[in-house]
Amino acid sequence: MWIGTADMPDKSDKWRIRMVEGRQMSGGLLNMVDTLGSYLQQQGQLCDRLEEIADSLPDSADGVLCIETANQMVRMIKSAHSFEEEELFPAIMAAVEDRLALEPVFDRLKFEHWEDEENAACVHEALCAFAVRRADSNVESLSWMLRGLFECLRRHIAFERDHVLPMAISLTARQFD
Ligand SMILES: [Fe+2]
User: Phi and psi (nearest 5°) for 3?
Assistant: First the structure.
């Protein structure tokens, strides 16, 4: 049974995912689908919040919102990445036959996780500094950092929503065949 092929970027054979015959997913992929959907939604809301802050710089920016966003985002982003790397990706890899085709995709997503966490840490520091010492902050730099972070996050989220989530849903449906 071929699954997960319809929306893959180049529709070539390397993207085709085949279930390992008789293999059962471990850890309840159904819950993982819900968790992934929730994390993608939370990260999307974070991007909207970051864009709102960037658009309000410098005079209309809410200092409390800056601090709250800075404090929440690093933990949430790391939590989402840990879930994907430690639970979701291994569960998908365990259930598909064409692991060699999928491995570079997950490697790239993991690298993007690392980049986003690095950028989020820098944005956290800059947002807190802005909220505490607004007059001394480099607003142009902060705006550039904010936009860089939410644009990268949105690209990553879009890929996972369009490709990883449907793959996980397909594998979950296969469990109940
Ligand atoms: Fe991710």
Answer: -140, 165
CATH of the domain at 155: 1.20.120
Tell me, yes or no, whether 118 lies in a domain: yes
Q: Could you tell me the distance, in angstroms and rounded to a whole number, from the CA of residue 159 to the centre of ligand 1?
A: 9
Each residue's pLDDT tens digit, 100-158: 889 999 999 999 999 999 999 999 999 999 999 988 889 999 999 999 999 999 999 99
Q: What is the pTM of this model?
A: 0.81
Quote the CA–CA distance of 25 and 37 in Å, as a whole number. Answer: 18
How many angstroms is it from 145 CA to the middle of ligand 1? 20
Distance 60 CA to ligand 1 centre (A): 32
Distance in Å, CA 59 to ligand 1 centroid: 33
